[in-house]
TrEMBL record:
<dbReference type="InterPro" id="IPR014001">
    <property type="entry name" value="Helicase_ATP-bd"/>
</dbReference>
<keyword id="KW-0508">mRNA splicing</keyword>
<feature type="domain" description="Helicase ATP-binding">
    <location>
        <begin position="50"/>
        <end position="133"/>
    </location>
</feature>
<protein>
    <recommendedName>
        <fullName>RNA helicase</fullName>
        <ecNumber>3.6.4.13</ecNumber>
    </recommendedName>
</protein>
<dbReference type="InterPro" id="IPR027417">
    <property type="entry name" value="P-loop_NTPase"/>
</dbReference>
<keyword id="KW-0347">Helicase</keyword>
<keyword id="KW-0507">mRNA processing</keyword>
<keyword id="KW-0812">Transmembrane</keyword>
<dbReference type="GO" id="GO:0016887">
    <property type="term" value="F:ATP hydrolysis activity"/>
</dbReference>
<dbReference type="GO" id="GO:0003723">
    <property type="term" value="F:RNA binding"/>
</dbReference>
<keyword id="KW-0067">ATP-binding</keyword>
<keyword id="KW-1133">Transmembrane helix</keyword>
<keyword id="KW-0472">Membrane</keyword>
<feature type="transmembrane region" description="Helical">
    <location>
        <begin position="14"/>
        <end position="42"/>
    </location>
</feature>
<dbReference type="GO" id="GO:0003724">
    <property type="term" value="F:RNA helicase activity"/>
</dbReference>
<dbReference type="GO" id="GO:0006397">
    <property type="term" value="P:mRNA processing"/>
</dbReference>
<dbReference type="GO" id="GO:0008380">
    <property type="term" value="P:RNA splicing"/>
</dbReference>
Amino acid sequence: MLSLLPNATFRLQFYRLICLIMGHGVQMHACVFLLFSAYFLVLEMHMYFSFDNRYLTDGMLLREAMTDPLLERYKVIILDEAHERTLATDVLFGLLKEVLKNRPDLKLVVMSATLEAEKFQGYFNGAPLMKVPGRLHPVEIFYTQEPERDYLEAAIRTVVQLHTCEPPGDILVFLTGEEEIEDACRKISKEIANLGDQVGPVKAVPLYSTLPP
């Protein structure tokens, strides 16, 4: 069935979870349910009827290139988060540069918020460069008076203080890995629950690249 869908739009996501989220998001917000949309992961494939889009990880695109060297089933390829340099992504950049020489009809879009754009612009033979300015929101920065011996416990304590003392809202905490994130979610939920009816409920949601669907 997939080989019968020429001129599809492909979007590369380097993280499995983001690939899943975007595939679901397009399906949920699509207004036209006539064409084909899919996201592909290693050992996993999901298909939806919406736009003629595909969301793949870098490894899956490399696999497709083994049987379709010119990627002829795609009309547009979008490489998102291009600054996430891995062996697979570097191979893809070289592969796509060669494909573009043989397929002038193929459109390649490289996107990143932190990429050294001029270097990639030169690599792709002076491709047009577009900059989309972001919006800055006011931010107040507060520092601890003394260095914290345990930054994880300090982060959990700060979240609980904000939840109990500030108006309702969201709190985003950056931690170093899956274990710390899961541990923080458990402890935050437990500490808020121990406060009983003194404060409102809290929903601690983990987010990391290997999070299962």
